[in-house]
Write a structure and sequence with these properties.
Elements: E1 24-28, H1 37-69, H2 72-98, H3 112-141, H4 148-170, H5 177-206, H6 210-238, H7 248-256, E2 261-271, E3 277-285, H8 288-291, H9 295-309, E4 314-320
Parallel strand pairs: 3-4
Antiparallel strand pairs: 1-4, 2-3
Helix pairs in contact: 1-2, 1-4, 2-3, 2-5, 2-6, 3-5, 3-6, 4-5, 5-6
């Protein structure tokens, strides 16, 4: 049985006009990082730029080494690093857009830019993985001669560069799906370089040229694994699914436990961007609450209940008398 939140205990500093029939109010509090969003964004962008610089410089050198050594694994890594450069640049751009305040038609600002960037990162990972897989299978069938020493040296150097980039991004706010996407690219490259180094060592010690193609397949598998997580999370947000951490049944149970609340319907919960869940609901209350001007206190009690039990930044409640349901179209639970 949910705790009952006495509406009469809520502050009464609202005007009587808020108690009119069918009243609706945007009720919410700033997110934990809301006041410092500009500072947090600037810090994240600095980390992203640091990682971008490291990877872009090394990518050029690796591409030259790949051409010289005829190594597909190095080509695969260089191609993945090219996607990293694009992903990091897109992440920086998206972070800047997301930090802009809400204006005009953009009532939530441009926060979804971060989700679009994460989705793009996931799609690019899939495309590059498919291209690498096709070429790797061909090289398993007919392997070219690969210079194992060049592969090993470049792979070890690449692992160090990606380790530095990973450490930089690890300090950014990885609750952001945008940063998560960039981080996934860089971490995947780190593991890929370690696998490529092993392939180079195997070629040096045994002369088994197919080790290069096998390492490429490992790189492709890591890309697909990272892409799956990114696309699943960004897809939930873009399709406005209920956040995983919120149970609508629990929300309804707590809200109906508020004094004078008879029913809750048209309950929706979605995510604007990473870490910013949003909720709306139609709340049926006892008819006398509108006549007595008690509606504002019920709104306070509803918001207090929601804030106490669920981490929701924005909530919109529409208060209705019992007879209002007959005037609603498309009503649902």
């Amino acid at each position: 049985m949910p705790d009952r939140h006495e509406a009469s205990r809520a502050p009464d500093h609202y005007t009587g006009s808020q108690g009119e029939k069918g009243v609706a109010r945007r009720a919410g509090t700033e997110a934990a990082g809301g006041h410092g969003q500009g500072i947090g964004t600037d810090t994240d962008v600095r980390y992203l730029i640091t990682a971008l610089g490291l990877i872009a410089l090394f990518m050029v050198g690796e591409l030259i080494a790949a051409i010289f050594s005829r190594s597909l694994a190095l080509f695969a890594d260089a191609g993945h690093m090219l996607t990293d450069v694009g992903a990091l640049a897109a992440s920086i751009w998206a972070a800047r857009l997301a930090a802009r305040p809400a204006t005009g038609i953009w009532t939530f600002g441009l926060k979804r830019a971060e989700i679009l960037s994460a989705t793009g990162n996931g799609v690019v990972l899939v495309v590059v993985a498919v291209v690498i897989t096709i070429e790797a299978v061909q090289r398993l069938i007919s392997p070219p001669t690969v210079d194992g020493t060049v592969v090993l040296v470049v792979a070890l150097a690449g692992a160090l560069v990606n380790l530095a980039a990973t450490m930089a991004l690890a300090r950014a706010n990885r609750r952001s799906l945008n940063v998560q996407g960039a981080f996934a690219h860089v971490v995947t490259d780190l593991y890929a370089f370690l696998g490529t180094a092993v392939a180079g060592l195997v070629i040096i010690l045994t002369g088994w040229q197919r080790a290069d193609a096998v390492a490429s397949l490992v790189v492709a598998a890591l890309m697909l694994y990272a892409a799956r997580s990114l696309l699943a999370q960004s897809g939930r947000i873009l399709l406005e699914a209920t956040p995983e951490e919120i149970s609508l049944d629990e929300v309804r149970s707590h809200l109906t436990g508020v004094e004078h609340v008879l029913d809750v319907h048209d309950l929706h919960a979605w995510t604007v961007t990473s870490g910013q869940p949003t909720l709306s609901a139609h709340v049926v209350v006892e008819d006398h609450c509108f006549a007595s001007g008690h509606a504002p206190q019920i709104l306070d009690a509803l918001q207090s209940c929601l804030g106490h039990h669920f981490d929701v930044e924005h909530a919109t409640f529409q208060l209705e008398p019992e007879g209002h349901a007959a005037h609603e179209q498309g009503r649902h639970r």
